[in-house]
Design a protein that fits this description.
The protein is mainly alpha-helical and 398 residues long. It is 76% helix and 1% strand. It is built from 11 helices and 2 strands. Strands 1-2 form a two-stranded antiparallel ribbon. Helix 2 crosses helix 6 and helix 9 (277-289) packs antiparallel against helix 10 (296-321).
């Protein structure tokens, strides 16, 4: 735009007539076309629809992700057994074991839990009487009781708990209905994972045929390493939890705590939770010891729990998990927090192996981006150095 022209005035044409002024835009810019605007609108609408569709099918997607995790986990024992027996029979044996584990855990936990609940409800008034006598013998507690009526509230709570068994039965019915739904979801996950274990390798090879030759072997090796990391972590976590349960069973049997096997199973299951699982299990058992031989049993259990957790953190866990995942402790905490926030207990269990798999994928991708020629497949010509495919590969996942 010159000194004589302005955005609001026109200029003189060749014959002297006035020409309407055109809008002046910054240099190098132009107005978006109708096609570009429509493209942006359609992209935004389709993205919103896709996100809404994902939200609608979030449960099947969760089942599919969980089935993938289960398939990767059981692929290691299936591969080991398939070296001696047919692969179909190996898959059957492994999945029978997977199904029997929760059944055995339920058979161990449910009967003692029912007996303990019944005993607690029936004897709770006597416990309240003991507390009342203890308060009456202590002047300071007696003063607090007169101010806040603690024992009276405890007696009312105990009587109300004993009279609310009908509502408790209704709540148990609701729990049973939700349990049936959970069993259906578990069965769906197991069936999906069985198909993945049986056909997953062929599916992966078929998908990799569409990738360039220089990428194919690298992707396959990255997938195998991710599968080995996940399977090793789960196997190590199960071994660590088994050791914790056995140690707890021995100590609880010596202390004479009721139902030591059930309490040991609780300790083992909670030990699978990263960071806080072992502490929660120790606290639950510590509360149970209060009703056994207080304070002797409680003191001994607390000492054992603290000592064993230190032994597990510095001796057992490094030896078992040293080859499974190599994550920074800060990343482990962050992964566990995000997993627990998103998916609860299941998310906390899946977070660390998922983070390990993502770390392996990121390392392989960055290595390939830095030097893609290094990962070209060997052409087989004499004198040419072999590519990465000549290196020993990890055990295939499926």
């Amino acid at each position: 735009m010159t000194m004589e022209e302005s955005p609001g005035t026109g200029g003189a044409g060749p014959s002297g007539e006035l020409v309407p002024a055109r809008s002046v835009l910054p240099a190098g810019s132009r107005e978006p076309s109708v096609r570009a605007v429509l493209r942006v609108v359609v992209t935004v609408v389709l993205s919103a629809l896709a996100l809404y569709l994902v939200y609608l099918v979030r449960t099947p997607l969760f089942y599919l992700a969980l089935a993938t995790f289960v398939a990767v986990t059981v692929s290691a024992p299936v591969n080991v057994l398939s070296r001696r027996i047919p692969r179909g029979l190996a898959i059957l044996f492994v999945y029978v074991a997977v199904i029997m584990v929760p059944i055995i855990i339920g058979a161990i936990l449910v009967p003692p839990a029912v007996r303990a609940t019944t005993t607690l409800v029936s004897e709770l008034p006597s416990y309240v009487e003991d507390v009342n006598e203890f308060v009456q013998d202590n002047e300071r507690l007696q003063t607090l009781n007169e101010d806040f009526e603690l024992t009276q509230k405890l007696q009312e709570w105990a009587q109300g708990l004993a009279s609310d068994l009908d509502s408790a039965a209704a709540a148990l019915a609701d729990v049973g209905a939700s349990l049936i739904g959970s069993l259906f979801g578990l069965l769906t996950v197991l069936v999906l994972s069985m198909f993945m274990v049986a056909r997953g390798r062929s599916w992966t090879d078929a998908a990799l045929r569409y990738r360039p030759a220089q990428e194919r072997e690298r992707i396959r090796r990255a997938l195998d390493r991710m599968a080995v990391a996940v399977s090793s972590y789960v196997g190590g976590a199960l071994a660590q939890a088994t050791i914790a349960g056995l140690a707890a069973f021995v100590v609880l049997s010596i202390l004479g705590v009721p139902a030591p096997l059930a309490l040991a199973v609780i300790v083992a299951v909670l030990d699978l939770l990263p960071l806080i699982g072992a502490t929660i299990g120790a606290l639950i058992v510590g509360v149970i010891t209060l009703f056994t031989d207080f304070p002797t049993a409680t003191i001994i259990w607390v000492i054992f729990a603290i000592a064993y957790q230190q032994f597990e953190n510095y001796v057992i866990q490094p030896r078992i998990q040293s080859r499974a995942v190599q994550l920074d402790p800060f990343l482990i905490i962050v992964a566990a927090l995000f997993g627990a926030f998103l998916l609860g207990v299941v998310g906390a269990l899946l977070a660390i192996p998922t983070a390990a798999a993502l770390q392996i994928a990121a390392r392989e991708f960055l290595a390939y981006r830095r030097n893609p020629a290094e990962f070209d497949e060997p052409s087989g010509e004499p004198g040419e150095p072999p590519g990465p495919s000549a290196e020993p590969e990890a055990e295939p996942a499926s």
